[in-house]
Design a protein that fits this description.
- With about 140 residues, this protein is mainly beta.
- The protein is about 5% helix and about 40% strand.
- The chain has one helix and ten strands.
- It has one helix spanning about 130-135, and strands spanning about 10-15, 40-45, 50-55, 60-70, 70-75, 80-85, 90-95, 100-105, 110-115, 125.
- The strands form two sheets. The protein has a five-stranded antiparallel beta sheet, with no helix packed on it.
- Strand 5 (about 70-75) and strand 6 form a beta hairpin.
- The protein is globular, with a radius of gyration of 15 Å.
- The protein binds thymidine-5'-diphosphate.
- Thymidine-5'-diphosphate (TYD) binds near residues 39, 41, 43, 55 and 120.
- The site of thymidine-5'-diphosphate (TYD) has 7 residues, from strand 2 and strand 3.
Amino acid sequence: RSDLSLDSCRIIDLPRIPDNRGSLTFVEGRRQVPFDMRRIYYLYDVPGDSERGAHAHRNLHQVIIAMSGSFDVILDDGRQKREWHLDRPFYGLYICPLIWRVLKKFSPGAVCLILASDLYDENDYFRDYDEYLLSVPR
Ligand code: TYD
């Protein structure tokens, strides 16, 4: 489905409330992001040579935010690939269902926050790339 392609994945510019006491950013379901959050999780203590992700989801919508530090995200819809470098806590990368993603090149101390549209469900994962490709006719 074309609405579940790389063209739907995009950087969301989150609100920023500047203040000389420090900055504030917020995320509300169905406002700044196009789904209601049901889960958050985060990656931290990630070695610089480590790769995370390497899977796709059948139904899950996600937004990835570099809360601290930086890392690269490579998205692949089975037809084309695109790469993002996330390094600021006010940018969210929206990932629609059926996108293969790899996260790598974590800087020391990087924290990767993921906002997810549903609870954890292993049955929602494609963990095998060839199986994924067969299941997403492009
Ligand atoms: P995994 O999805 O492989 O991590 P990543 O995509 O970030 O590289 O998950 C690693 C392990 O953590 C796996 O055994 C499943 C478990 N897990 C949960 O129990 N709940 C969760 O919300 C997530 C994201 C993972």
